[in-house]
Design a protein that fits this description.
The chain is of the alpha/beta class. It has seven helices and seven strands; from the N terminus they run αβαβββαβααβααβ. It has a domain of 172 residues: Rossmann fold (3-Layer(aba) Sandwich), CATH 3.40.50.150. Strands 3-2-1-4-5-7-6 form a seven-stranded mixed beta sheet, sandwiched between helices. Strand 4, helix 3 and strand 5 form a beta-alpha-beta unit. The radius of gyration is 19 Å and the shape is elongated. The two termini are 33 Å apart.
Length: 282
């Protein structure tokens, strides 16, 4: 999703070059988790999937490989520049559409799977966005929402063993302050199971995942800090010298960097008129 330049716009602008690095790192970190759930939900040949806030092409491509030529994948974002690469995906049909999930009507037709990863935490009207996602499900269709919960584990370096780790954690605190000032809910992930039940979905379950050390975490942190550097300095949350020192520390590869926990929650729209609904693989 793109930053509109307003105080409550999206903090991490898809137009910046670092966005591609972030998308690749997020795919490496979280695609295995996402597709473990997708496969468990039984997403297969001929199904229709809506990928919200797609950003990069990895999830649309993975969905297209599962639904095959007879299925369809709709990938939407308010900035589709990085998702266009998915149009060249082999297997399945991918349509890319500019769409604001909190403001635009849900795409018609009904979907077997609606999925959003690391999207709603940044959307100011996330309750309305979730309502529209539920409305887009066909009877028996699955909603899979995966979102961060920085409040559950707020540290970039959980093992705060020295000055490098303390600096890293202070800059992560600044990042969270910028997010909160722009309307992000830093405790959103933990609310997902309740919100899916309140939306009328059945068979609601959830789990959580976050890596503690990974080369992808290192790449993600460096790209993120470069994207928000000017905002950190402008807000008085860090100096250029501190940011340079942190980036140098990250570049050594010796910091054990973590992400915020990603909560995955899923639920099924009740089947109507006695139709059988797909079972979640156990």
């Amino acid at each position: 999703m793109a930053d509109d330049g307003a105080d409550r716009g999206y903090l991490l602008d898809n137009q910046q070059a670092e966005a591609g690095v972030r998308f690749d790192a997020l795919a490496e970190l979280f695609d295995p988790v996402t597709f473990r759930h997708v496969d468990g939900l039984g997403i297969t040949d001929g199904m229709r999937c809506w990928e919200i806030g797609a950003g990069g092409p990895s999830v649309p491509k993975g969905l297209a490989a599962r639904v095959g030529p007879a299925g369809t994948v709709l990938a939407t974002d308010i900035d589709t520049s990085w998702t266009e690469a998915a149009l060249t995906s082999a297997g399945g049909t991918i349509e890319v559409l500019r769409h604001d999930v909190a403001a635009d009507p849900p795409p018609p037709g009904g979907f077997d799977l609606v999925h959003a990863r690391l999207v709603l935490v940044h959307v100011t009207d996330r309750a309305e966005a979730l309502r529209r996602m539920v409305r887009a499900l066909r009877p028996g269709g699955w909603l899979l929402v995966e979102d961060a919960d920085p409040g559950l584990q707020p540290l970039l370096c959980p093992d705060e063993s020295g000055p490098e780790q303390r600096l890293a954690n202070r800059l992560r605190t600044g990042f969270r302050e910028l997010m909160a000032a722009r309307g992000a809910d830093l405790a959103y992930g933990r609310t997902l199971p309740r919100l899916l039940r309140e939306a009328g979905l059945d068979d609601v379950r959830a789990d959580a995942y976050f890596p503690l050390t990974s080369p992808a975490c290192t790449r993600l942190e460096a790209a993120t800090v470069r994207q928000i550097r000017a905002r950190l300095v402008a807000a008085g949350l860090a100096t250029d010298q501190e940011i340079d020192q942190h980036l140098a520390n990250v570049a050594t590869g010796r910091l054990d960097l973590a992400t915020s926990p990603m909560i995955s929650a899923w639920g099924r729209r009740p089947a109507q008129d006695g139709a059988a609904a797909p079972e979640r693989a156990r």
